[in-house]
Amino acid sequence: MVVGPYRGLFGMPGVKGFVIAGFIGRLPMAMLGIGTVLLVSAVTGSYATAGGVSAMGSLMFAAAAPVTGRLTDRFGQSRVLVPLALLHGVALSSLLLSAHLRAPDAALYLAGMATGATAPALGPMVRARWSHVLKDKDPGKLHTAFSFESVVDETIFISGPALVSALAATVNVYAGLIAAIAFTLAGALTLASFRGTEPPVVRETGKRHGTPIAIPGVALLTVVFLGVGSVFGSIDLITVGFAEEQGHRGAAGFMLALIASGSAISGLWYGSRAWRIPLHTRFVRTLTLFALGLIPVTLMEQVRPMLVALFVAGLSISPTLITGFSLVQRLVPAGQLTEGMAWLSTAIGFGVALGSWAGGWLTDAYGAHNAYAFSFGCALLAAVVGMAGSALVRVDETGELPHGQSGGS
């Protein structure tokens, strides 16, 4: 049964609380981008400005995530989350106020950058809590927990844009981002209050470890996930262009939801299995399937067959992400786990920004159908890099580092 392995996860004390708080607090990560575009384009009449403000916010979030992760590992989640969530609320409020007052574009950009820089990266924090509460359990439970979190992410990316768009359409263009403030504060502050499942701060004795990005395996995963993020960013934008070219602009949201649905379904199945194949081998195989799954997308020229192709392409996403985060959990010292996972989120974030820019340019220049070749190329490059460097992420299932590898200096 697919559901069976997940039932045992939620009987442990405090787990339901941090899972629910993490979901609520992470929902805005799928609301901020589209919410910012809807607000800024409405008040300025410029999609270029709206896209620029949104992109700068995303880039600042990606750049700040490892710093936030390092602070969290050093001082603890609760001591970092509370001030960060409050600062984020102030920054996002300043964006709303700047838009309402028709402030110059520079003010919008600054507010957007502050919003991104202060957005709490709750995904790595929730995964770090899973690692903590399951540290003495069957290693397969952590695999199932990370699979569940991947499905949560896909659910968020399906529901977040729909929610903010509905609020903007039925209430006003400010409502979606106001809701994002409320969700962030409620989720982050509640998560901070659950001290029983918070990973303890590991006090370092002796030589201090460097940043996790100095670990060869983590560096490799970061490069791979930069390519994966480029696929995400490009395929989202290109799909919108494809739907419009085919005269079905309204179908774009459904088409993107099919990708996320395929990923969520495969994530549930992947997490329910007890795998005997080594992690590094699974990682290479999922990356290969990720690239191969995009080939049909590059060949379709009509909307209906493209629906099937996009769903199939989504099937390999969650397994790839799950395996990558699982490898980081084994490669990084316990005291740097949040920062290590944040590096993957950062790589995806930069990749999304790069992919969005390249996908938009290529769609304008060559048409959406041809632009999908860029998405396939990024996935293929990620698979090749992952295959070439697979020895760097070879770990045993007890979490020891590869032979001869250290945590950096």
From TrEMBL:
Looking up PROSITE patterns in the UniProt record yields: MFS (PS50850)
Protein localization: Cell membrane
Q: How does it sit in the membrane?
A: Multi-pass membrane protein
Recorded GO CC terms: plasma membrane
What InterPro entries does its record include? Answer: MFS (IPR011701), MFS_dom (IPR020846), MFS_trans_sf (IPR036259)
Q: Which GO terms describe its molecular function?
A: transmembrane transporter activity
Domain spans labelled Major facilitator superfamily (MFS) profile = 217-409
> Origin organism of this chain?
Thermobispora bispora (strain ATCC 19993 / DSM 43833 / CBS 139.67 / JCM 10125 / KCTC 9307 / NBRC 14880 / R51)
Q: Which residues cross the membrane?
A: 17-41, 47-68, 80-101, 107-126, 173-192, 213-232, 252-271, 283-300, 306-328, 340-359, 371-393
The keyword Transmembrane helix appears for this protein: yes
User: Gene3D superfamilies recorded for this chain?
Assistant: MFS general substrate transporter like domains
According to UniProt, the name of this protein is Major facilitator superfamily MFS_1
The UniProt keywords, alphabetically, are:
Membrane, Transmembrane, Transmembrane helix
